[in-house]
Amino acid sequence: MTEQDDISRDAELPEPELATPGRWSVSLVWLVPLVAALVGLVLVVRAYLQAGPSITITFDTAEGIEPGKTEVKYKDVVVGKVSSAELEANHEFVIVHVDLSKEAASLAVEDSRFWVVRPRVDMGGVSGLGTLLSGAYIGVDVGQSDKARTEFEGLEVPPAVTNDQQGKRFQLRSSDLGSLDIGSPVYYRRIPVGRVVGFDLNPDGRNVTIQVFVDHPYDRFVTNRSRFWNASGVDVSVSTGGVRVNTQSLATVLVGGVAFQSLPGDDPGEMADMDAAFPLFSDQNSALAPPDGDQLKLRMRFFQSVRGLAVGAPVDFQGIEIGTVSGIELEYDRDKKQFAALIDATVYPQRLGRAYRGLRDGVVDHDHGDEQPINADRQVFTDMVNQGLRAQMRTGNLISGQLYIALAFEAKAKPMMVAADDGQPLEVPTSLASFDQIQQQVADIVDRLDEIPFRDIGRDLSDTVRSARDLLRQIDGEVTPELRRLLEDVRATVNAANQSLAQPDAPLQQNLTETLDELDRAARSMRSLTDYLQRHPESLIRGKANDPDPTDNFPNE
Amino acid sequence: MATQPLCVCEHCDAVYRRRALARREIARCLRCGAELYRDQRYDLNAMLALTLAALIVFVIANVYPIVRIEVQGVASEATLWGAIMATWNSGVGVVAALAAATVFFFPLGQIALFLHVLPALRRGRVPVHFSDAMHALRLVQPWSMVEVFLLGALVSVVKLAGLAEVIPGIGLWAFGILTLLLTTLTGFDLRRLWEIADGARR
Ligand SMILES: [Zn+2]
């Protein structure tokens, strides 16, 4: 065939039909970026709507806190995430920025408290072991206030009481803190029902106020008749009553504690109010002792050394502690030309109980019907002195050399008259203690010291330490290798993924060309679909129209 | 007029002579009504629309995490740049740089070059540095490998799924769509752009 033929053939060929489509069909393709923009907009709007407030918390150290990973949890629900952590300008503490979720916005109020939960061994035992695996997180105690706040000072230790815990707080007044500390338990009938949550030195520096928290429902056992005492450590008291060993539990030996109970009797008393104040007694006996009643001042003169006798030493009558020494002074007796120790004591005659009431009634009824009670007490003691009551200084504790005052009748005592009523303290004559008594006391003390189960206490302690050590070894031996293996597995996977992508002869690389071809083909058919849709947008609704019969449209056929 | 180009209908094999088209005109087959060719301006429209879509999806893909992995309650989210930085820090800087180039910079360059060229051509003008941009586009296109990254990420997700709880993130979906869009962009015939530019110059 010649070129001429070609041209003439070309001239015979028909020209295609020309059409100008409606303007709207062109805009169809713009739907694609519009949809993409809409999706982007939705994502942005959603992020904006879900974003809660950002807060900053300061901590001493950022140990365990990882920006982007560490979460803030309330009741174990994630309510926020640490976005960044930075050092404060003076390098004293770290500032942690936290993004709270929208639902947690109400957490950022005036009295909320934050702390880092990490494994911790403290008064209450071992806590936060779960964070060994999950990593540290920030705990939050939601405040009750409705005032918003965005800057917080983080606690270094978890709070002993969180705001959502039910119970009551009480104040205890004591002369010193003893072995108590924040977290020390509070016992009721040896059941732990609360803990010490704080302590303050009073402004005058003379006393300590200890705050305790008693959990619901035990808080109802704290009444106006409740007495609190220090149940700390091993309470070994050597007194006229002998040696007493008293502990609430092994825990109190280690960490100290407070116990409370109502005064014996039928009346349970009324429930105490929040923040009610109670005195903290040094031991159970003094806490539960009957009320003292009126007091009577006694004065004694000892012509011997009073080394070992201290203010506060007990005054004892036939084994019952009825008072304490209130003052010790030295005096020079010009007549006898010798020094005398002038001992003042305060006694509570009511503590002698029923026997004393009988004596006192006798005095009041027969002699002076309208006698003032204080004078009646004095009269009874005056009578007793006349009948031979003498004061002796005895050894209470051989180890420490502590002394106490014992009041006792002496059969051989010469009658001695003392003034019946005077503004001065009642003078009680003294006598020297016999050696026999001392010896007997020594034997008693030694016997009872033997009864203290020091060995058991020691064994229990070493058991506790051993099981703690076992636990730690277990964590070290089982958990850590598990974690390491897990990490190695993850790394191996990533390596494998790297290799299958990086090696030139990797099967993935070979398949890639084919895949891309496939994609290309897919794109091409997508394009013809788009084109078809552009031409026949109505086909979306009506379906694809049947091809018209070629003969109808092609007259040259 | 001697060698007027011919055109064959893809659907019914009818042969036509090419005709010059007016603006927005489409040439159709007389026999079956199929589209033969159309005024190139409409292609510019489609290319510009898809390029804009690709840009939006590219931003989404880079902002949102690709995957979230949870092992024993320890969660970790990875964005593209997080992954690249992690690769860099683990000592294989070359791999990190390569990944950054093929998954981030080259696709971004491709989109940017299209955005430079297309709007001007669409208005019938030739953009500044047109030929440089077109050469750059030709060089960049083969190196834009978002699809490789997507396949790698999918392989990792599948492999990790047995070891940890793996949750695909918005970023992964965005990369999927970005792959489709970029493949379509790459499928455009750059020669047509030259032709259009020639037409605009005249
Ligand atoms: Zn046709």
TrEMBL record, chain A:
Residue ranges of the TM segments: 28-49
Highest taxon above the source species: Bacteria
Subcellular location: Cell inner membrane
Residue intervals of the Mce/MlaD domain: 52-142, 167-234, 303-408
This protein's UniProt keywords: Cell inner membrane, Cell membrane, Membrane, Transmembrane, Transmembrane helix
Chain intervals with Basic and acidic residues compositional bias: 534-547
Coiled-coil regions listed: none
Region ranges (Disordered): 534-557
Signal peptide positions on this chain: none
Broad class of the protein's primary localization: membrane
Entry keyword Transmembrane helix: yes
Record PANTHER family: INTERMEMBRANE TRANSPORT PROTEIN PQIB-RELATED, INTERMEMBRANE TRANSPORT PROTEIN YEBT
Record's protein name: MlaD family protein
Phylogenetic placement of the source organism: Bacteria, Pseudomonadati, Pseudomonadota, Gammaproteobacteria, Nevskiales
UniProtKB/TrEMBL annotation, chain B:
InterPro entries per the UniProt record, alphabetical: PqiA-like
Annotated keywords: Membrane, Transmembrane, Transmembrane helix
Keyword Transmembrane helix: yes
Entry's transmembrane regions: 46-67, 104-121, 142-164, 170-188
Coiled coil: none
Listed Pfam families: PqiA
Record's protein name: Paraquat-inducible protein A
Source species of the chain: Banduia mediterranea
